[in-house]
# Entry
Amino acid sequence: MIRAPFLIFPLLLTTLPLCAQGKVSFESQIWPILEKRCVECHATPSTGPDGKPKKPKGGVVLDSKDGITTSKKGTLVVAKKPDDSMLYASITLPADHEDRMPPAKKGEPLSKSQTDLIKKWIEEGGELGKWTGKKAEADKADAKPGTDKGKDAGKEKGKKGTPIAQLQAGLQPVPAATLAAFANGPFAVSSLGDDSPLLRVTCAGNSDDVTDKSVEALAPLKAHIAELDLARAHVGDAACAVIATMPRLLTLDLRQTQVGNQGTAKLAACKELRSLNLYGTKVGDYAMAALAELQALENLYVWQTEVSAGAIIRLREAVPGVRVVMANDLPEPMGEGAGNGRRRAGK
Ligand code: HEC
# Structure
């Protein structure tokens, strides 16, 4: 399927944040960039899982208000002076400069629209608003009633977590005869784990053969599907009506399908959804309001869609802790290896 990706992409990342939005908001526009590209090396000192202390690189702390205002004796962000601000200097060095941030081994430099946004934010005063830091954010998510779905939920991150244990408690496995019907494709159906009755269903490799009708055929598995990968399949809103009947769905990949607002809004019924990939779909702002129901949502991919920055800000307010990805930063396709389909590069 060929689309015209470059038309929409600059519109979202450049035009909207810079012009239509007015003042740049640290919390909703700058922090997501720092969190994604910097904080892994520039977090508040802590003790790692191995018991060893983890120190921020170069003494620069970017995940708290204190860190940002006091690192490098306050020269990290100098209000109204991007050129005097080390933060801005570090991201605008030439791509091959050894001090460029993030370091070359960590991938591409920030895009021009991202560095421009940071520049504008500093020019406007470099204020942090109500944001006080990553930790405070996590505490806020914890305190919110209804997000802690049990003891397994979000131990480490103080976040919502993936409650596989609760989801599969008491669930009988799908009878072998039912599963046998799927042996000839187009879906690959497998268990989420050795003894788990939960299922992972992907159409990887066969996406051309998968239509709304094929998705209807998944109905007998609807109580068991936890991961569903329909990336690039020939499916649209009708498939979403079927998906909306899957109460244990945690991860859904609809990238580059014909799914639009009507279908996406129906997904509000999948209350356990943690990750939703709508990259390159026809979705827009209308569906974002409906998705505010998905209080467990952790990752939402809307790159190359018509979703506006404003709709995303509203969604972030409605769903604390959700990470909305508007850039080319997509998870690995699921179905390869264990886990929820996300893998960390490098390690
Ligand atoms: C892979 C780890 C890593 C990532 C990711 C990373 N940095 Fe760094 N950063 C370092 C290291 C290591 C140093 C210390 C370099 C030194 O002291 O020579 C450093 C130093 C810095 C400094 C101080 C530079 C100086 O001259 O003292 C700033 C500012 C900085 N980083 C900003 C950022 C920003 C902004 C990002 C995200 C866009 C980022 N870093 C992402 C590893 C990283």
The first helix runs from residue 5 to 20. The longest strand covers residues 225-229. The two ends are 33 Å apart (CA to CA). The chain has a mean pLDDT of 82.
